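Limitations

Structures in this collection are predictions, not experimental determinations, and the ligand pose is part of the prediction. Treat each record accordingly. The example that follows, with magnesium ion as the small molecule, is included so readers can see exactly what is and is not provided: the inputs are given verbatim, and the output is the predicted complex.
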Amino acid sequence: MNVYKFGGASVKDAEGVKNLFKIINTHKENLIIVVSAMGKMTDALEVLCNAYYSKTGDIEQAFQKIKDFHQHIINDLFGTQSEDINKSVDNLYIKLQNIIDSEPSLSYDYEYDRIISFGELLSTTIIAAYLEKQGRKVKFTDIRKCIITDQNYRNACVNLELSAQLCRKVFTFQDTFMYITQGFIAGTTTNQTTTLGREGSDYTAALLANLLNAEDVTIWKDVPGIMNADPKLYENTEIISKLSYKEAIELSNCGAKVIHPKTIKPLQNKGIPLYVRSFLYPESHGSVIRELDEKLELPPIYINKDHQLLLTLSPRDFSFIAEEKLSRIFATLAKYRLRLNLMQNSAITFSFCIDLNEAIFEDFINELHGEYEVLYNKNVRLLTIRHYNEEIINTLTTDKKVLVEQRSRLTARFVVADQ
Ligand code: ASP
Ligand code: MG
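Predicted complex:
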């Protein structure tokens, strides 16, 4: 059995859905197709969710934008035969309307997940109907009944044992050899909707592969494979045809957007290869991530993480930054759900880089202010270079002010600001 994952960019319009059909239509073995919300619909649903929760902004307009976007694709795909699919989609809209017509609960994260999940529900409903229309038998499966999580809304943690049991019951391949299901969303034991973190569909694909012992996973992307740098930002990038799990997890953790960081572990644990291929050129091989015995000669790989906040804390009473202080700082980070992207300490300073989030910036700083003097730089960039050499460091850091520098044997990292 194989798992294919199609992200939002691959199904951003009717052409994309037709292309998905072409790709899966040549597939001869058992297959699970995991799909994200179409195009930028998750962002559009976030706008709707925020308008609903904060009672500001135009809820109707935000909802209409989502409806128009999908209707356009439905019209292109189904033309005059759109009666059935319109009915299915309308049923989803009624459910969403019911949510936004009611008073929000006290938990933003809970409301967020139940609203945002409609992106994936809509995309899989439309795509399943289109594949059916083209004569492919695919079984639509609601993943919320199979991947079960705790109630940590927006970043839920999967109950692997229970999910394995349920997945094995649902994905039997007895009366079909193709399933289509949603990435990113999941459910609780009490039937609440949760999500696994933004861009989490890759993780869903990897989880299903792990729980069902798939042969491999393929992520279909708009890039030809894993590149040594983002081709949208740099010239002369090259494709890396083979990578180890270890290298891949380091890269995605440093901010390489090609795969979600949580994707590698479930695959590594079962030795399942991950292919990254282009949906635009499905005949080319792309890249593979798997266990590698040989040592690879890799070119310098560089990754930019923009919109960073660099903070330096110094205790006001001149005491050392020791374990106790660090653990309190970490607890504050956890409270605001902030992830450390880089850290460095000296006797009486602790510097770190996190994603800049204006919405919580003030509260977060205020919380630290009592105990520490806080210096910060907003909107700096974290540059990571794996397999670095001096030449590439010079090229990438000229014209930049280097605020922090760290080097280990394989990795050089810089926090830089434009001069
Ligand atoms: N649709 C979700 C998002 O945009 C999940 C995904 O794309 O993987 O975050
Ligand atoms: Mg997406």
